Amino acid sequence: MTGNQIWSFATNGAVRSSPAVAYGLVFVGSDDGTLYALDASVGVPRWTAHDGAARTTPAVANGVVYVALDDGRLIAYDAWAGTDLVTLELKATSSPAVADGAVVVGTVSQLVGLQP
Fold first, then answer.
1. What is the model's pTM?
2. CB neighbours of 75 closer than 8 A, spacing ≥ 6?
3. pLDDT, tens digit, for every residue of 73-111?
4. Which domains does the chain have, with CATH numbers?
């Protein structure tokens, strides 16, 4: 690694979470209310979703991107097309994780395991 910058991408709001990288894409939410899917090699958007600010790190597995939004919704998107597959009102407060056939997310008062 040389540390030389190879690309940058400006959002219209702060990026407060870590990006997730899978399938040659970088997934990251912004305070501008957008989830971005950027081409990892050149930093240009492949798709965007404008559902609300996301300060949690997305989880990616089996072609699906899971992100908890600031309003507590957990949304699953198709990783390649950005289409909304499902939206759940969970009062989610943590970054989702995917393991052993379950999506796990923290809420206001509990940890919830969900079938993907």
1. 0.93
2. 49, 51, 66, 67, 69, 84, 86, 87, 88
3. 999 999 999 999 999 999 999 999 999 889 999 998 999
4. 20-114 (2.40.10.480)
